[in-house]
Amino acid sequence: MDKLNFLTAGVPIKAGNKGYEEGFKVLDNMGLDGLELEFVRGVRISDKSRDAVSATTKVITAHAPFYVNLNAREEDKLEASVQRIIETAEVTNSLGGFSITFHAGFYLGQDKELVYNNIKSKIKIIADALEKSQNKIWIRPETTGKATQWGDLQEIVRLSREFETVLPCVDFSHLHARYNGAVNTHKDFCEIFEYIGKELGQIALDNFHAHVAGIEYGEKGEKKHLNLQESDFNYKDLLKAFKEFNVKGALVCESPNIEDDAKLLKEYYLSLK
Ligand SMILES: [Zn+2]
């Protein structure tokens, strides 16, 4: 990508229930760059929405359904999880999207190496299926906000090294919550970009997919999303690090006031010299 784009997680609130077309107008009025399709309750999109999304020149990403566990014990749940990610990728690719993200699974108290291999074997099925149907879209496990969910930064970077079409979706607020308030300094953020650049190459920093929101957390990690100014998440130093490493791609704002915080983030980013 040629720059860092600022996206809302879903249709902006100000669009009311008027759908994507109105949503894109709101984004235009606010100087925002795109949105993430929220397929969190299923990969469904009406023909009208499909037309609006296909027609836009804005940056499009997607979030796969929450009902995904690539480490499920039951075969039917595994198959459904694989299918949901493939469908998300196919639909988003057909709409000209850039990248999709998903929460890959749960540890279920199992050995972490075993879980890694279970998830890797399912990602292989997904990556192979998408390659076969010539879907060219990044598929990205997201860094998760709770210690019971698979997906710390190291696990996701390791998985990304094994597949050409896999890169991390770094949810910085999740990392902050996962470690009960850590990962919140300029140095921490720089280390993340340094690590990803070193392990995955410049292509990962030129095609980044990030999630940012205010967040409430405790010892068990993520509790809920907050607006940035109601939370202790240090978005200013994060954006400084984005700028210093010249990271390009899509930064999706998941605060409850989605478009207002997306604009706050973008304006602060553009104010940096
Ligand atoms: Zn997510």
Give a short synopsis of this structure:
The chain has 273 residues and is an alpha/beta fold.
Question: Could you characterize the architecture of this molecule?
Answer:
The chain has helices at 19-30, 47-55, 75-94, 112-132, 153-162, 172-178, 186-200, 202-206, 235-244, 258-271, and strands spanning 4-9, 34-38, 59-63, 99-102, 138-141, 170-171, 208-212, 214-218, 221-226, 249-253. The two termini are 20 Å apart. Helix 5 (153-162) packs parallel to helix 7. It is an alpha/beta fold and 273 residues long. Strands 5-4-3-2-1-10-7-6 form an 8-stranded parallel sheet. The radius of gyration is 17 Å and the shape is globular. It is built from 10 helices and 10 strands. It has one domain (4-271): TIM Barrel, CATH 3.20.20.150.
The separation of the N and C termini measures 20 Å
- How many strands, which pairing sense, and closed or not: the largest β-sheet? 8 strands, parallel
How many independent structural domains?
A: 1
Relevant CATH superfamily: Divalent-metal-dependent TIM barrel enzymes
Order of neighbouring strands in the sheet with most strands: 5-4-3-2-1-10-7-6
Structural class: alpha/beta
The CATH topology assignment is: TIM Barrel
Rounded to an integer in angstroms, the radius of gyration calculated over CA atoms is: 17 Å
The CATH first-level class comes to: Alpha Beta
Architecture in CATH?
Alpha-Beta Barrel
Content of β-strand: 15-25%
How many DSSP-defined strands? 10
Shape: globular
Uncertain spans: none
Tally of alpha and pi helices: 10
Q: Please provide the ordered H/E string of secondary-structure elements.
A: EHEHEHEHEHEHHHEEEHEH
- Summed over residues and divided by their number, the pLDDT gives a mean of 97
